Amino acid sequence: MNEIFYLGTRSPILAYKKIETLLQQYNTSAKHDKIAILDHIAKAYHPDQEEVTSQIQRMTSSDFVKNCERIHTCTEPKYAQLFRLIGRQPDGVRSLVHLRADLLRFLPEMDSPDYAKRMSDNLQDLLATWFTTGLLKVDRITWQSPCEIVQRISEYEAVHPIRTWTDLKQRLGPYRRCFAYTHHMMPNDPLVILHVALMDDISDSIQTILKRVSPTSNKSEEIQKENESLINSAIFYSISSTQAGLKGIELGNSLIKRCVRQLQVEHPQLAKFSSLSPIPDFRKWLMEELNSSSTSLISSETRSWLNSFLTSATTWHLDEE
């Protein structure tokens, strides 16, 4: 590892070859070996406490700028340099995204979780500069999009599972929109996927959207056209973040805003925008509250109404079976 740091400032080409070998070894390692590697990097290349303390003690009122530079240099972990070198590799950005996903997943099992958490945060900051929304592209995914992307849309759907090709085709067809954030360093791999239903009004049920059949579904795909008079509302009914390594980097909110602008250009008559997406584990929490005799969050009148409603609506906000 020290050789990589040395070559990084003197012979980048040789450093890249060493990094390529390092990544190959890491990717083919067993889980426990990956944990050991990450643990070692996080602790061995963390800022040195004695050096930082020494630099702070040497600070004087004069030459403040140089003092700050020295403090910055000694407080930056060496693995930050490693991450920047990896990022310059072909497919290096993707490798870093996967590396951070491993960090987050293995964190509870690491010997030095505090050091590993700091390394994860450092890597998150670096990835945030590369995945700023200005560098991301909004792509509309259709049935005619490359097969690899269409397949990933199906695999990555985390809110309302896509069960069949017919289901997938409908979600990419008329009166539907599917948008994805993509990055030029990770082509054909959507980062965030947003599904939109174009309706004649705000829907009060996910079943209304999932079961909705296009008014022109009896026609061939080539002649299906959307009737503008039936489009008044855009409902964002599913959004999925596909990369665990980008956790903590806000992308979904900006994707929705950019899609709103794009939809308004395509359909100027759109007057309503709404989100209809389930809150994870909300039903479970609600049922526990209803069954608890000590809760003060729900009044007796509301409790009675909810019990009656949930008894009659057994598939409340669930996918069709």
UniProtKB/TrEMBL annotation:
InterPro entries: Malonyl_CoA_deC (IPR038917), Malonyl_CoA_deC_C (IPR007956), Malonyl_CoA_deC_C_sf (IPR042303), MCD_N (IPR035372), MCD_N_sf (IPR038351). Signal peptide: none annotated. Residues 45-131 form the Malonyl-CoA decarboxylase N-terminal domain. It comes from the Eukaryota. GO terms for biological process: acetyl-CoA biosynthetic process; fatty acid biosynthetic process; malonyl-CoA catabolic process. Residues 134-309 form the Malonyl-CoA decarboxylase C-terminal domain. One of its GO terms (molecular function) is malonyl-CoA decarboxylase activity. GO terms for cellular component: mitochondrial matrix; peroxisomal matrix. Pfam families: MCD, MCD_N. This is Malonyl-CoA decarboxylase. It comes from Adineta steineri.
